[in-house]
What does this fold into?
Amino acid sequence: MRWEFSNDAPIYTQLIQQIKVGIVAGVFPPGERLPSVRDLATEAGVNPNTMQRALAELERDGLVYSQRTAGRFVTEDKEMIRRAKRSLAERHIKTFLEAMLRLGFQREEIIALLRQELEEEKEYAGTGM
It folds into this structure.
């Protein structure tokens, strides 16, 4: 998994979001054992305590669970994963729409731009590139 951090939010909240994305995108499939806290922290280049805090939060949210001696696992509750995916998508859409409105676009213009981009992407994907 590729880890990216910015200065606009605490690292542990960015870790939570990036692990959530990994779960909903299937990088960490349902029921899969997660790497150890230390391994994840090393991979992400963060303090193990920071990673532990992020994983504890994901556990409270129900996306991850612990088995005493076996480690942490991704939930097998596919509906919970689907809801998390929808929530992440809604947040991205809201951020996008706010930015487009700040740029002065109207709703109809935004929809037209999205349609155009989707068509271009479809054509590009059809070329095999």
